Amino acid sequence: MHHLSLLFLFFIISLHLYTSASATSPPLPTLTSSCSPSSQPDPLTLIPDRLTILISGHSPRRLPLLRRLILSLSNHPSVHSIFILWSNPSTPLSLLSSSLPLSLPSISLIPLPSSSLNLRFFPLPAIRTRAVAVSDDDVSVPHRSLSFALSLWQGNPTSLVGFFPRSHDLDISRRTWIYTVHPDRFSILLTKFLILDREYLWKYSCSENYAKAQYHVDQERNCEDILMNFVVAIEGGGLPVLVDAGGIRDWGDPRNRVGGNVSDVAVSHDDSGMSEGVEVKKVGLSSRGEMHWRKRGECIREFHKLLGKMPLRYNYGKMVQGVREQALCRKGGRLVSCDHEE
Predict the structure, then answer these.
(1) Which among 213, 207, 235 is positioned nearest to 225, based on CA atoms?
(2) Using CA atoms, how far apart are residues 196 and 207, in angstroms rounded to an integer?
(3) From 131, 221, 254, 286, which residue has the greatest number of CB atoms within 10 Å?
(4) CA nearest 64: which of 87, 94, 95, 92?
(5) Which residues lie across from 242 on neighbouring strands?
(6) Is 333 exposed, middle or buried (0-12, 13-18, 19+ CB in 10 A)?
(7) Looking at the predicted structure, is the pLDDT value of residue 33 above 50?
(8) Does residue 10 have a pLDDT over 60?
């Protein structure tokens, strides 16, 4: 049996036990998904102009921030529903119920049976939109930036659309693939926040072609986002689309510092109305430093070997919200943009 099928069976049993053991708590959404095509909605019935958001949560320390992010996103007119995929089975359901706005009809909590990163992409039958955003629990996206990203995806539905770029590259001296950042090109978008077609969730989770690569993700506890970039490049072929929009905040980035130390308290000031202090700890995978980058280079090499091809391709530009003239003119004794209003 496909190892994802076994994981799914455990998923259903664990969810049943979890809800049965918490009879006094608010009921959890029922998960009845499988990898059978018949369990998935007809693509023609999917809502074309709205968005479902899958937020991966693990650390109880981030619950105050997660609550504020959810409340902000749920107020966006294009957001149809939000699923919180909670991957820490040891977290008490009572804590989640009291910390998250589960009374809102568009918000659903899905407690996962394990911390497998592959479950970030499980194709929930309850997803009724074609566009799906996959998000970390510590990234805030202003409404105007989310609207812009969604409009770009609608024009590029075979692509990944996101805000956080990385690259693969060939180290010629060692004759091997590496994971890096280039100032002038990119080939990978991170799942900190990205938008993709719902169909790619099914391809990632259910195709036998990616079973061994998923096993590698579970073994390394890393690289599910790189694998999704491989899947999209193979299945859809669209180049990744990088969005340059203001106000995106990654609260979990270790470069958030106060007085030279990683900040325990972050304060947001964006157009979502978030302005309260929220506790954020250095708990993400990327906080592991150089070891994290080496591991991700190893993943690229392993996926190349397992899949028999290197489908990642570079894109060289980014989509900018708003158009301004590039030429400079002298106005009032100063060189300024020619469309500058004095």
Answers:
(1) 213
(2) 17
(3) 131
(4) 95
(5) 162, 318
(6) exposed
(7) no
(8) no
Helices (H), 156-311: 198-206, 211-220, 224-235, 290-307
The per-residue pLDDT for range 297-322, each reduced to its tens digit, is 999 999 999 999 999 999 999 998 87
Nearest to 155 by CA among 73, 243, 74, 233: 243
Both tokens of 119, joined, read: 């479950």
pLDDT of residue 133 exceeding 90, the answer is yes
Per the CB < 8 A criterion, the answer to whether 57 and 87 are in contact is yes
Pairing of strands 241-244, 318-320: parallel
* Whether 9 contacts 2, CB under 8 Å: no
Those residues whose C-beta lies under 8 Å from the C-beta of residue 139, and which sit 6 or more positions away, are 69, 192, 193, 248, 249, 250, 251, 252
* Dihedral pair phi/psi, residue 219, rounded to 5°: -65, -40
Q: Tell me which amino acid residue 305 is.
A: K
Q: Which letter does DSSP use for residue 245 in this model?
A: -
Catalytically annotated residue among 225, 250, 253, 270: 225
Q: 3-class DSSP state for residue 194?
A: strand
CB 312 within 8 A of CB 165: no
138 is catalytic: no
- Quickly tell me which residue has 């997803």 as its tokens: 127
Question: What domains sit in the chain, N to C, each tagged with a CATH number?
Answer: 3-337 (3.90.550.10)
Residue type, 149: A
